[in-house]
């Protein structure tokens, strides 16, 4: 089909036609009239009365106009050059706009993004839903939400009904994209003989429905602690569901093993003066929780509160009052040694910094904090490079942690002796998790960015230099320089892309060193925790870095410190380290995700289910207990059912199950009548008791 005269042979035909039309007013009017007669693409409208166009090639001479269009035909080469210059100028401006949005606005725009991508990103930022075909509408979260506890199903993207899923035999690692052949081949080999749970009738995750985007929501907005998944809970109104069963059969947990249930207390239950913030209100809530037979509570003991003002000056007053209150109600305690700051992460509603005296040291020696490639410091926790450096008023970081834990053990000796404290979880990094602070929101990270390596403080670089010299390649004493930025995607980088540098000689050296520093830090701290809390169960928490899990490199896991590409098991070494100290592994459950979250999971090639079972099997291989907590706010039955299926796998040949579960967390929303009734039902099923109404 012939193009209009003056249009250069570029990719975008419509944009080029717009550029060619820059003439004087008289010619523009005639050109518009000609286009109205011919159609934009040089086709004649059909006179058959149908809505279809009959494509009829038109000779170029038809576009020419005797009333002034001859000037254009007389200099086609000059006009073509002008058009090329305009197009280059337009594309240069577009490139600068896109670069600015990526760098400063943290928008995840593809490499060859156009104005449609920009508009879609801005619409999503404003809370709108933009479908792949361009259909745009307000998010359901902007309108009314059904009452708590109401379950709503949703149809697939083709508006077809989701068929009820029936249980199937155990499978291998699920949900691996066919576009990543290496990952499929490796995982199929790695997961042979490894337990994978049978999908339940209410398991509507993307791994269970590979061809459908259907999902059952629990009627409440859900937010993730780490990592954040953007998007709000999407609830589809009843009239959109045609033929979907109103109730799904539910697994009966009566007679299953007893799994203790703990409830996490609010982050600010103890204020900065180390006093109970609201003792009367908390006591009422604890009595209500006791009435449904929860086993105990979990609470953070913040380093930034207890040792706030001077080294080795500890104030435990608020915790003393809290622990006595809990013990009088005959509840157990799980305590977290929180050596990180609170505030700045998703879900943080209070601000608790590191001790003031540590901040003073950091102002004169900022290398005590983790540092990224651009030199930005992260005061969320101390760098692991100073674990054995005497830079904290004559003490090493390891000694500071040990003195704090020993003080706690002496202060609350009676609670240890009578068994009121059932477990101590030891904070090993940001958010109390054993990982690098690879995705700080304060530095602009947004899901599903790959994050950045955090090894550029003086002490970490010194350790890297030593490792490179021992390897015989001193020029390897640096971090990789082709890793993108916080919000990059694996395929945009030379290091993390398929067959990228991560799997080269230097890449394997660096990643092995980077992950070994993580394992060594956990080993050192837990060895002292075991000494301080001898006779009491200790635990360490691992995060679920599930995005980019279906790619070959597992980029987000690599920057977090888990050397877990498709050709290597990055969690077995961590499980062996925990087994060495008799520590419990605390790992978040995979709960039900909402429709928009499922879209995000697909775009990020995520597989939370596959990741969870890889970690769980690594722990069970070395026979260490597994505790768990929910990563999302959960108040509906479908979400609770998903947790139950994870905690008590239905078809495990050895009858294994998790050792305990901590609900995240106590709030006024949980105490609402309908939500609390569902939670009570969940607790009974975790305890293996029979409940009424086995339909959901």
From TrEMBL:
Domain BES1/BZR1 plant transcription factor N-terminal: 71-211
Keywords tagged on the record: Carbohydrate metabolism, Glycosidase, Hydrolase, Polysaccharide degradation
Gene3D superfamilies named among the record's database cross-references: Glycosidases
Listed Low complexity bias regions: 52-65, 141-166
Acidic residues composition-biased segments: 8-26
Enzyme Commission no: 3.2.1.2
Pfam families hit by this protein: BES1_N (PF05687), Glyco_hydro_14 (PF01373)
InterPro entries: BES1_N, GH, Glyco_hydro_14, Glyco_hydro_14_CS, Glyco_hydro_14B_pln
Keyword Hydrolase: yes
EC class (word): hydrolase
Catalyzed reactions: Hydrolysis of (1->4)-alpha-D-glucosidic linkages in polysaccharides so as to remove successive maltose units from the non-reducing ends of the chains
Signal peptide: none
PROSITE patterns with a match to the protein in the record: BETA_AMYLASE_1
Biased composition (Basic and acidic residues): 75-84
Positions of the UniProt region annotated as Disordered: 1-88, 136-179
Family, similarity comment: Belongs to the glycosyl hydrolase 14 family.
Protein name: Beta-amylase
Source organism: Hibiscus sabdariffa
